[in-house]
Amino acid sequence: MNITNEQLYNKRRYFLKLGAGALVSSALVQSELMALNFFPDPNNEKLKLSDEKIATNYVNFYEFSTDKKRAVELAKNFNTKDWKIEVSGEVEEPLTLTMQDLLTFPLEERIYRFRCVETWSMVVPWVGFELRALIEKCKVKSEAKFIKFTTLFDKNQFADQASFFPTLDYPYVEGLRLDEAMHPLTLMAVGMYKKPLLGQNGAPIRLVVPWKYGFKSIKSIVKIEFTKEQPKTTWELANPREYGFYANVNPNVSHPRWSQANERPLGDFFTKPTQMFNGYEKEVAHLYKDMDLKVNF
Ligand SMILES: Nc1nc2c(c(=O)[nH]1)N[C@H]1C(S)=C(S)[C@@H](COP(=O)(O)O)O[C@H]1N2
Ligand SMILES: [Mo]
């Protein structure tokens, strides 16, 4: 893998300075995660951003706790030092990417709608790079049809992983079909609200797939594998009747225990109708044109 610094500098960049030294040399070492430089999103759709305080305090991160507030507290000291992502599976040569490597991909702000399967929703200005940029560097074999992501497993950091009866079968695993992963909307996020991700939101790097229910957007990724077979994902294993592999936002397919017809934007009192593919139908419907979305939910 050979990502060059030129990529960072061959275009005009917008710098966000959060401290002295932010502009010094390459914004490429761990501490310089503090200095995210990215192309801003013009927000052509005029989406109303969720309040930053709410979006960073109302979280799902079961490894810490199923209690949203408790997860935020426990995530305060999340240690992401020397973070790496291992890339393996159906590739010509496995590789290990440091955050330094990962931050050489061109960063963009992306203002996306985000819809949790629990029916709350938000609009978040993420900062990240397209997953396809990473995939294109990986010399993926033609046999690869899926991509599998794994979250950190560390009982010293994740209270629920250390508990006698963990809530989920950890490590948390998610997956996408390769064409979904290559879609330009699919983002690897390293920041939100112009700042590096906080522990509770999936620091230092997470997936964001805006047309799918939030549980697909796996946090704190340490492993990426290319596979021939559809990976078994954590929520599917936990309850296949309730959580499918595809998990596309769909107002017409109810969760077995509640309707998905409406959603409540965080901070709002009233609900509003759920949009097909969370409002990204024009961009992604073609990926599923031959599929029965009631079966492949
Ligand atoms: N590793 C991991 N990733 C995860 C989760 C989790 O518990 N563990 N929760 C998921 C769910 S259900 C949602 S809705 C989103 C929430 O992202 P947010 O807390 O940053 O809003 O993260 C997803 N990614
Ligand atoms: Mo969720």
From TrEMBL:
UniProt entry tagged with the keyword Glycosyltransferase: no
A GO BP annotation: protein repair
UniProt binding sites for Mo-molybdopterin: 62-63, 116, 151, 201, 206, 217-219
Domain of life: Bacteria
Enzyme class: oxidoreductase
Protein task: Part of the MsrPQ system that repairs oxidized cell envelope proteins containing methionine sulfoxide residues (Met-O), using respiratory chain electrons. Thus protects these proteins from oxidative-stress damage caused by reactive species of oxygen and chlorine. MsrPQ is essential for the maintenance of envelope integrity under bleach stress, rescuing a wide series of structurally unrelated cell envelope proteins from methionine oxidation. The catalytic subunit MsrP is non-stereospecific, being able to reduce both (R-) and (S-) diastereoisomers of methionine sulfoxide.
Catalytic activity: L-methionyl-[protein] + a quinone + H2O = L-methionyl-(R)-S-oxide-[protein] + a quinol; L-methionyl-[protein] + a quinone + H2O = L-methionyl-(S)-S-oxide-[protein] + a quinol
Gene: msrP
NCBIfam families recorded: PRK05363.1
Listed cofactors: Mo-molybdopterin
Name of this chain's protein: Protein-methionine-sulfoxide reductase catalytic subunit MsrP
The protein's assembly and partners: Heterodimer of a catalytic subunit (MsrP) and a heme-binding subunit (MsrQ).
Cofactor-binding details, from the entry: Binds 1 Mo-molybdopterin (Mo-MPT) cofactor per subunit.
UniProt lineage: Bacteria, Pseudomonadati, Campylobacterota, Epsilonproteobacteria, Campylobacterales
